[in-house]
Write a sequence for this structure.
């Protein structure tokens, strides 16, 4: 007998619909899976058999053939265990075929018959066309985020069979917990940062306009403190951005917040020893999203930027420009979202003390250290600031600095002005509309012309300076035309941090 069950498999951060066809016929007992399954998928034959027997159900002493259609798409992961088991039960007439009509299944099976969660519940359910989806118990809230399906949960195969037969009611979804899932953003307040007026301004401009930020300074100057407080200035994610961040986190197998939807901008801070695959994404087996995708919609913080391998840093250049990562392999090609705000922190020299008198580095060693960051990568940082150690009076005065709440309010107002222009932030203003959206006054033109003729500003840098100046004008509720005040400050905030310092 033949049975057909709907399900889905994960490819990158997107789900691909899969039709599981199970054929049971006379012949020597055996179990065969075809349709380009990977190793975990091929091993489902042993898990399915043990799960059914542990649940008090019979296993057919016949030839069982499972086809995963479409056959040209590679199937990965153990999430097809449950639909294969349901197909076997329908094909052997343990379950009538009409009871599974219009119902899709996603889940891994344990040898004891338990149904376990799998990574990527949100994109998997999104790829399913059936009106009803059965997922592992505890995943109902996550699956309901798609909003198109009637979601059912089951903890064991025996419980699921009883529900499909109508002998037991479907279990109610578990109540939402008040605890946040581990690994989500911890909100830190900007008032903890003493002094650092220029760096605080750069962080505010970065949050308001979505501009990439490079902080350069000696150890203990507050670079990491500033970077970790930047997500608290960003507005909450909503609509497609929140669903995209949720899909990526779900596909990576990371826990979601109690409400299911990721609304806080992500913050990712990988170690400088991370590999290119872990940062960009991919892998030799099942391709997974990297740190740039997990930070999409939020902040990617690279501390000790100069210590990252050059190949990893150069691989960031295309995602910074396009907001997407495209990975092409022999088996498949996938695209991951990568619209993140990059914040880098680095020392000005190997000892970290330049430009103070205690610096022990020679000019040659300092130049060699600076060359660890390629020119094209540094050019993509809209804001580059030298962060000095705060003054002793600022540390011991007891006066509190401006907290994050009013700064976040200014950022939200600036972002609202960006939305009126049809973009989420000024960093995404199209170059062909800068004359319209960021017009220059005469004194602003003279400043930029001087930098361009001196060769200290590239064509890409010109566009980025105009976008930063637009953000500065939005924060101060300035005029439409960008004059010397905003263009000059934008140029100062883009200075080479190893040889310049900004004063405000």
């Amino acid at each position: 007998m033949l049975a057909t069950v709907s399900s889905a498999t994960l490819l990158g951060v997107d789900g691909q619909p899969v039709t599981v066809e199970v054929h049971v016929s006379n012949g020597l007992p055996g179990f065969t899976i075809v349709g380009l399954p990977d190793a975990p998928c091929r091993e489902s034959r042993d898990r399915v058999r043990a799960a059914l027997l542990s649940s008090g159900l019979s296993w057919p002493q016949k030839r069982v053939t499972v086809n995963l259609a479409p056959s040209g798409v590679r199937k990965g992961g153990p999430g097809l265990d449950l639909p294969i088991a349901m197909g076997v039960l329908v094909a052997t007439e343990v379950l009538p075929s009409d009871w599974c009509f219009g119902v899709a299944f996603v889940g891994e099976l344990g040898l004891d018959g338990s149904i376990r969660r799998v990574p990527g519940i949100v994109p998997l359910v999104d790829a399913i066309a059936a009106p009803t989806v059965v997922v592992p118990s505890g995943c109902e809230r996550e699956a309901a985020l798609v909003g198109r399906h009637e979601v059912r949960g089951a903890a064991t195969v025996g419980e699921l069979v009883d529900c499909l037969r109508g002998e037991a009611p479907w279990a109610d979804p578990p109540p939402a917990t008040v605890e946040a899932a581990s690994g989500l953003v911890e909100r830190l307040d900007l008032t903890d940062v003493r002094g650092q007026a220029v760096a605080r301004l750069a962080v505010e401009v970065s949050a308001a306009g979505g501009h990439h930020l490079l902080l350069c300074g000696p150890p203990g100057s507050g670079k990491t403190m500033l970077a970790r407080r930047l997500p608290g200035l960003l507005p909450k994610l909503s609509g497609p951005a929140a669903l995209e961040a949720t899909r990526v986190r779900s596909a990576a197998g990371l826990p979601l917040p109690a409400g299911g939807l990721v609304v806080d901008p992500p913050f990712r801070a990988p170690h400088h020893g991370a590999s290119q695959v872990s940062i960009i994404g991919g892998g030799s087996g099942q391709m997974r999203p990297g740190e740039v995708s997990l930070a999409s919609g939020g902040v990617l913080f690279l501390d000790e930027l100069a210590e990252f391998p050059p190949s990893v840093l150069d691989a960031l250049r295309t995602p910074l420009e396009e907001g997407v990562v495209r990975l092409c392999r022999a088996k498949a090609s996938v695209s991951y979202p990568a619209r993140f705000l990059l914040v880098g922190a680095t020392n000005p020299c190997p000892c970290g003390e330049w430009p103070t008198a205690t610096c022990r580095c020679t000019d040659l060693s300092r130049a060699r250290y600076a060359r660890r960051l390629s020119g094209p990568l540094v050019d993509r940082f809209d804001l580059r600031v030298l962060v000095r150690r705060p003054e002793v009076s600022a540390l011991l005065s007891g006066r509190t600095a401006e907290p994050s709440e009013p700064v976040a309010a200014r950022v939200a107002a600036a972002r609202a002005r960006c939305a009126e222009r049809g973009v989420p932030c000024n960093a995404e203003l199209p170059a062909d509309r800068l004359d319209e959206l960021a017009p220059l006054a005469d004194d602003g033109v003279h400043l930029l012309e001087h930098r361009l003729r001196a060769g200290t500003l590239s064509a890409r840098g010109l566009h980025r300076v105009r976008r930063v100046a637009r953000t500065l004008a939005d924060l101060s509720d300035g005029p439409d035309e960008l004059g010397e005040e905003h263009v000059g400050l934008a140029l100062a905030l883009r200075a080479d941090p190893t040889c310049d310092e900004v004063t405000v």
